[in-house]
Amino acid sequence: MSGVQRQDLVLFSDQSVMPAQLFENSNSHNLFFITHQSSTQPLWLINALVEAHVVGFPGSLNESVPSSLSSATHSHAVVASFIHEQNHFKNSLNKLKIPSNSYTVLDFLSDFMINTVVNRSRDKILADLLEKFSAAIQNASADIIVIIEQPELLLSLINGLTYSELNNKFITPLLKQCQVLIIVSNSDIFNIDDYDFPLRSSNLQNFYKTSFIKSVINLNLNPLKSGFAKDVTGSLHVCRGGAPIATLPNTNLHVVENEYLYLSEKESTKLFYR
């Protein structure tokens, strides 16, 4: 797409990706919901959100620097994954020169079943997971975002766990501990017929629906409908979630709905308007 103008990522009406207004009230808690498929890996978007929070804007994506950019040294990101090891995130964040003391990575892939799940009740497992996040949050500074990759896998890893238990005993308590919680989920399940895994499919679909309803913004990564293209990797659809944005009164902040095409190359990702 050499002849097409590159675009900056803008998610909110103040022309930002991670608005400062979300952190002005310690009693405000907002959920972001990212969905993707296996062919549209979200690491670049996760990096951009961490970068926007810690640095003030996503320099890995956006060419223009905000004129009102302020220091964000008091900001911290907690990143956790049930599908990737620590180095998956640390290596990419180090390449972006994000200060290592500005983020914490929790690894729930390595030895998770042995150390957390085996011979424990559902309530105990969820409580132990929540405690690990609580410790990371308490050790960090004031403005916290938490990014958790594929928590829906717990529905398969923990015997008998339902989407309502996952929400009520883990997701909602975690949201209350931070100002912004970002859930990153794989939506491949919607390409599987219901009769293949009826109960599991229903649990997953209900988890996704609940996450969308509780979110203030939905970021959906999709592959190209036409298949492979040399100059386009996929599309990013930005839309409002089902919940209002929690900020201080009289803050006229809203989601800027848009659709981008993106091109992921070895060392960078570029955005273009569709």
TrEMBL record:
One of its GO terms (biological process) is tRNA wobble uridine modification. InterPro entries: ELP6, P-loop_NTPase. Gene3D superfamilies: P-loop containing nucleotide triphosphate hydrolases. One of its GO terms (cellular component) is elongator holoenzyme complex. Coiled coil: none annotated. It comes from the Eukaryota. Pathway: tRNA modification; 5-methoxycarbonylmethyl-2-thiouridine-tRNA biosynthesis. Belongs to the ELP6 family. This is ELP6-like protein. It comes from Saccharomyces kudriavzevii (strain ATCC MYA-4449 / AS 2.2408 / CBS 8840 / NBRC 1802 / NCYC 2889) (Yeast).
